[in-house]
Amino acid sequence: MVRPFLRSLLLVCLSAVAIAAADGRRPLNHDDYDSWRTIGAPVIARDGQWLAYSFMPLEGDGDVIARSLIRSTEFRVPVGALPPPPLTASEENPERPAPRREVTIAITSDSRFLIATAFPAQAETLQAKRDKKKPEEMPKDGLVIVDLSNGTVTRIASVKSFQVPAKGGGWVAYLKEPPPETKDEAPKPEPTTAAAAAETGSEKKSPADPEKQKKRKDQKYGSDLVLRQLYAPTEKAERVFPNVLDYSFARDGRMLVFTVASRTETENGVYAVTPGDSATPIALVSGPGRYVKFTWDREQTQAVFASDRAEPEAKAPRFALYHWKRGTAAATEIVPVGTAGLPEGYAVSGDAAAAFSFDGTKIHVPAAPFPKEPDARLAELLDQDKVSLDLWHWRDDYIQPMQKVRADQERKRTYLGVFDLASHRYVQLADPALANVVLNDDATRGFGRDDRAYRRRETYDRAYHDLYLVDAATGQRQLVYRELGEKSGERWSHTGRWLAFFHEKQWHVIDAQSGTIRPLSANIPFALYDELVDVPEPAGSCGTAGWTRDGESLLIYDRYDVWQVFPDGRPARNLTRGFGRANRIQLRVQNTEASEPGDDKRGIDASRPLILRGESEVTRSSGFFRTSFAANVAPEQLLWRDQNVRYLGRALEADRVILSGSRFDLYPDLLATNTSFTAPAKVTDGGAQLAPFLWGSTELLTYRNADGVELPAALFKPANFDPNKKYPLIVYLYERLSQVVHTFTPPLPGTVVNPPFYTSNGYLILMPDIAYTVGYPGQSALKCVLPAIDGLVRRGFVDENAIGIQGHSWGGYQIAYMVTQTNRFRAAEAGAVVGNMTSAYSGIRWGSGRPRQYQYEQAQSRIGRSLQDAPLLYLENSPVFFAHRVTTPLLLLHNDQDDAVPWYQGIEFFLALRRHDKEAYLFNYNNEFHGLRRRADQKDFARRMSQFFDHFLKGAPRPEWMDRGVPYLERDEEKLRFRDSN
Description:
Elements: H1 4-23, E1 37-44, E2 50-57, E3 61-68, E4 74-81, E5 105-107, E6 113-118, H2 122-130, E7 142-147, E8 153-156, E9 159-163, E10 171-176, H3 194-202, H4 210-215, E11 223-229, H5 234-237, E12 238-249, E13 256-260, E14 269-273, E15 282-286, E16 291-296, E17 302-307, E18 320-325, E19 332-335, E20 346-348, E21 355-356, E22 362-369, H6 376-380, H7 400-405, H8 407-411, E23 415-420, E24 425-428, E25 436-439, E26 445-450, E27 464-471, E28 477-485, E29 491-492, E30 498-503, E31 506-511, E32 517-519, E33 544-547, E34 554-557, E35 562-565, E36 573-574, H9 579-583, E37 585-589, E38 610-616, E39 622-627, E40 636-641, E41 644-650, E42 657-662, E43 670-673, E44 681-682, E45 697-704, E46 710-717, E47 727-732, H10 755-760, E48 764-768, H11 777-793, E49 798-808, H12 810-818, E50 827-831, H13 837-840, E51 844-845, E52 850-851, H14 853-857, H15 871-876, E53 890-893, H16 904-915, E54 920-923, H17 935-954, H18 960-964, H19 971-981
Parallel strand pairs: 47-48, 47-49, 49-50, 50-53, 53-54
Antiparallel strand pairs: 1-2, 2-3, 3-4, 5-6, 6-7, 7-8, 9-10, 10-11, 11-12, 12-13, 13-14, 14-15, 16-17, 17-18, 18-19, 20-22, 21-22, 22-23, 23-24, 25-26, 26-27, 27-28, 29-30, 30-31, 31-32, 33-34, 34-35, 35-36, 37-38, 38-39, 39-40, 41-42, 42-43, 43-44, 45-46, 46-48, 51-52
Helix pairs in contact: 11-12
Pfam families: Peptidase_S9 (PF00326)
Region (Disordered): 81-100, 170-219
Organism: Opitutus terrae (strain DSM 11246 / JCM 15787 / PB90-1)
């Protein structure tokens, strides 16, 4: 007999099918993910006449599109398929994957040509994989050049990278992929130097020195650099320079500088060539050795680079710094090994780039200890004789996993010094005692952070440091503040006199001349810290827009408004006149000033209008406002929409601005307007992809949690929503999510529910904000989620017998806890759960290597005390101890290479459920991370999760894996059966 709630759900589904058939739209399915296209990398021409962007699917071949903003002309150029998302960790956050490679686009400064990278076509790459091609034999990236005057497309194969000058018209430089090595030497391109040209004809070369070849086994060698004149006939368009490793086009287009790394080491060096001049490139410096980290100053009148050419025969050669003035014939060695002022045993680093002060008079020099020669005995050891051992010492600053994660960073660590170009004097500023020094614009003063006394505390506490002022002329240090937290946000004024920082809920300023400290914001009557933060550690600031260009004031934010504060003691000014707070609109400075690439204008120009982006906390509508530093009235509204409106960029030489505007049901197409944001016009049509599909809509709700606190919640409603019908509901939670109500989410597979997929298929999705009480994170979630559901149920369109819940990581923990406390949910999915806080407390976040103790005492897990001080809180908040209470069928996802939550936490909880005969399914995608990264795994889990919810919330048949599991001996065959049947 069909149960009543299943009968009502069946009627809802049949009704949805009838509506879909009537208007021609259909629900999204899992096969729709791959073809969905996203707009990326928008570029606007200098004169504002052309817009270019990529339009790429998640899987399959995509396009670069160039659209005229003054005519109806549009060119669409196929550029192959995006490479798969990387599995490697991000350098910025080792617990996140590195970003996926995207198409790179440029428009020449005369708006005549579009240049873009291109990837191999998907079919080509797949065939190469089926043919088991070696990595070096796989299809390579390429380049497309589009003549915007007529749409002619030129394709160039096997290109690693390209550059066009910011100014200088129709030139492009691109670096080719090295050809596969063959026994027969390929014909040589144009020689780099006159000496090399003389040598080429005779081919009289000395045999390679075996010892030198061994020494250089890690040496990177260059490939062909092509300089192409885009207007010239093809046969005269290009010059080729061999063995180039790196290159830099001057912004004015009148100079191309490149470094050569050749197997014939006499050809190595740094060379400069003038586009359009057929003369042999000028050698700034050449000879055996490596040449790395070429860097221009801001005006591009001079440059620096590092080279180890002085020690070409050394097994661990040391680098020196070279300086070149543009227009001169040769570079000069300015910081050689043994320079006065360099600490003994130190030299210039080849792993980090030097930089110029803002005015170009001084050079920031990265110094490092001499490279160590590897112990030759290590290479001679047999595997059976090697000892693999780590020692965890109680006095170590960082535990072994943290040391391991940071090992490469530590090997390449550099310590800042300053070289004065006028006096030729070098001063070392940083060292292991004060490893991080940040200089002001003119490199006369710096501040440094010393964290050594607090490193061991990072196991269970946040990071701290002592703050020093550093005299760049002498290297002398002055301690100005002890034990600042990691959110102190120090920043120099552009005159170099003032140093602002945030501490104990206020902004402060240090006078670098006297070393005195004074409050900057003490008289502001509103909180300048994030009032919504409810973790045990102190909240950080609401942020800052930075210093004004004159260096005499700092713009800071409260929750809603913008304040101007003065280090000389003048009273603070509310630049937005309280308009943000009065209307509950968060106002933030939006920089729309035209600025040349690389010309880093300092600070906010107080003589110009101040453009603000605003977003309503009440409705999440957004837009732009204008005011001025002298205004005594509220900001003028320029644009306001019930959308998520974002500024994306502007033309450098025209009053043309590009925006995007989106909602849950509105694709973020690009909009063209002006700097007054007048009448934005849609100039792309990515939203046409929604037309075939049932989609849905959103609504922002408010509710009160069990403690009476009013909170917002985002409700995602099915397509063709009818308030008189009953719908299945899935609650998705993390912390505060209501702000995403106007965020467009494309159909994506992954570790969490995809709102458009589920609303398209007849589900309600509720995302309630959660307010926490420290010490009781599980109960806090329960006190918010259940009242939010109750409030929604009272509206009459929720089927109370078909309520599910889903979340990952912190969301997964909260769900695991809640299902031990309530039977409100018909089904639940929880990913990367912490099942047992007592064992997770001293676990390791393997991505960063950091112990998890700090997470409970100071951060997201919100216990606020140590396990030893509050064991009962850890027990009370641990789902594993209450697993016997669970009545909700539970789907778990926890992968064996989880780099944030130890995967044994999922095992502990699963085994506790299994012990008590609770319906539970644990998915472990082998060698996967905290979140699924492999595309096939993402699609597989998205299908299984939807089957799970469809069964329990819609009455769909149980899938085979729920009925009989997946026996280990059948695991591979089952994946094929599952893929082919869904």
